[in-house]
Amino acid sequence: MASISNGTDFPLDRAVQDAQRVMAQRRAGCPVGHVHAGASHGEGWLVTRYDDVMSLMTDPRVKRDQRNVPELNTEEGHDSLLYLDPPDHTRIRRLVNKTFTPRAVELLRPKIEQLADELLDRVAAQSEVDLVAAFAFPIPLLVISELLGVPEDDRDEFSTWSEALNGIQDDPGTVRQAYAYLQKLVADKRAHPGDDLLSALSLAAAEEGGSLSEEELLANAVLLLVAGYDTTVFLIANTVLALLGAPEQLAEVRADPDLLPAAIEEVLRYDSPVNISSPRWATEPITLSDITVPAGQPLLVSIMSANRDASYFDEPDRFDIHRHQSTRHLGFGHGIHYCPGAPLARMETHIAVGKLIERFPDLQLAVSPETLTMRDSLLMHGPTTLPVRLS
Ligand code: HEM
């Protein structure tokens, strides 16, 4: 059995800027190995191959909730979907599936279209612009505000708070304010339900006999915000980056906009916005790629790495919008925790990138791609800025 001190310890947190290359080395030389993954993930067993990642996502011996891992002997847990196992996960996820419907997503379309047009109007006169700040960030922020039912008057402050909760601002005071704000919002929605997802969740729970506590509603409001914000920012940014790096394919998409959904799917594979998901826990010894991870250990699955695995995807480092296998990417996860926001994220990205490339036929990257700084995170993968020339 491989032990923690078998020489595979690796300071992964120092490899963020070069994450794709480091993950390729891990897949080839040490597909399952113990790493130091920084403040966000702690230490754990990094799992990098497609088959191993996929199997962990459906293995009942693997838990998200630390309270279900006997070796950890802890009562401390978290009430958000991502950190729950059945039956609590099943109960809350059913409510989310019931309320976060295709219709609820479709209702957001006109607002997203309008905002995308306004943002592009605002930058149109500039020769050079940072697309992350000016375009990719504001779109998911509006969407989350609408979903959570944040009143118009609170939205400026809400943007500071949501940035704090996303870890962009390392400011404990602001994080506390953000929680306090969401706590008040959740209580308001329960008392005076509106036309938003938080209210719908609360009402649906009441209909089923009060099966969602205020703490659970709050925890999942925070999750919706955190899970739906940066991920979408980076899907928009990574899509623009990939298309600008493949001018012939960009020309094809411009000539036939029906190709855009396939291009977005290929970006979810080729440059996944999620690198390493939050930890899972082994409750029994689990053998992956001939390495046995002991019970009670954290498992860190790299979605980004799995999606570049050559034993699963032909020529995985090639961006190809005609690739038929793209839809088998793990960009939105797999199994019971599969992203419920996937249709919304696809729609936001489709609207944003579609409008951008239609409006600016001479769009170009203003710097060389190697000089872009990536977000300092093992959770998210994407550039902090994306300077482009519009004309
Ligand atoms: C879960 C990716 C957008 C809400 C997940 C997971 C992934 C993911 C990989 C599963 C994690 C795991 O099993 O370890 C993404 C990407 C997005 C995106 C790449 C954008 C491009 C959104 C949006 C929302 C959202 C827009 C909601 C507004 C959630 C929630 C979960 C989740 C609530 C937890 C589900 C559960 O545990 O049952 N997402 N997501 N995501 N996502 Fe997304």
From TrEMBL:
<dbReference type="Pfam" id="PF00067">
    <property type="entry name" value="p450"/>
</dbReference>
<keyword id="KW-0503">Monooxygenase</keyword>
<keyword id="KW-0479">Metal-binding</keyword>
<protein>
    <submittedName>
        <fullName>Cytochrome P450</fullName>
    </submittedName>
</protein>
<keyword id="KW-0560">Oxidoreductase</keyword>
<dbReference type="InterPro" id="IPR001128">
    <property type="entry name" value="Cyt_P450"/>
</dbReference>
<keyword id="KW-0408">Iron</keyword>
<dbReference type="InterPro" id="IPR036396">
    <property type="entry name" value="Cyt_P450_sf"/>
</dbReference>
<dbReference type="InterPro" id="IPR017972">
    <property type="entry name" value="Cyt_P450_CS"/>
</dbReference>
<comment type="similarity">
    <text>Belongs to the cytochrome P450 family.</text>
</comment>
<keyword id="KW-0349">Heme</keyword>
<dbReference type="InterPro" id="IPR002397">
    <property type="entry name" value="Cyt_P450_B"/>
</dbReference>
